[in-house]
Amino acid sequence: MNNATTSCPDGHFAVGRRCFFIPKDGQKSWEDAQEACSEYGAFLAEPMDVNLFRSRIGEDSTHYGFWLGGSDRENEDIWKWEKHGTMIDQEESWYPGEPNNYGGAEDCLFLVKDRDPPLDDRPCDHLYYYICERT
């Protein structure tokens, strides 16, 4: 088994073999966060292990939660990572009772840092901090 450590640029943190960073430009809507990540040469985070990712974020941030790069905007109740197009595991990653599409308008993926499991659905136009993943 290869135990090589991922080397990430300054200001980034590693989870598995991927590098992530929390931009310091404030809160954004989900779409604006996606665009901002792109401007950084990255994309909204799509962690392979959401629970491990959540525990790692807890070490680096005091923010309540963050936008991640998933949504069900294309097909309601079918949650996919936007960049990779793969399904998001709903059984192990969603907080109980989520996703609930409260008010009929929660289509974007949000990670609540202090919940286990951490995933929640939120309206895409709400303003939150976000995490980018470097390619």
Automatic annotation (TrEMBL):
Keywords: Disulfide bond
InterPro entries cross-referenced by the UniProt entry: C-type_lectin-like, C-type_lectin-like/link_sf, C-type_lectin_CS, Ca-Dep_Lectins_ImmuneDev, CTDL_fold
Keyword Disulfide bond carried by entry: yes
Span of domain C-type lectin: 15-133
Pfam families per record: Lectin_C (PF00059)
Record-given protein name: C-type lectin domain-containing protein
Source organism per UniProt: Meganyctiphanes norvegica (Northern krill)
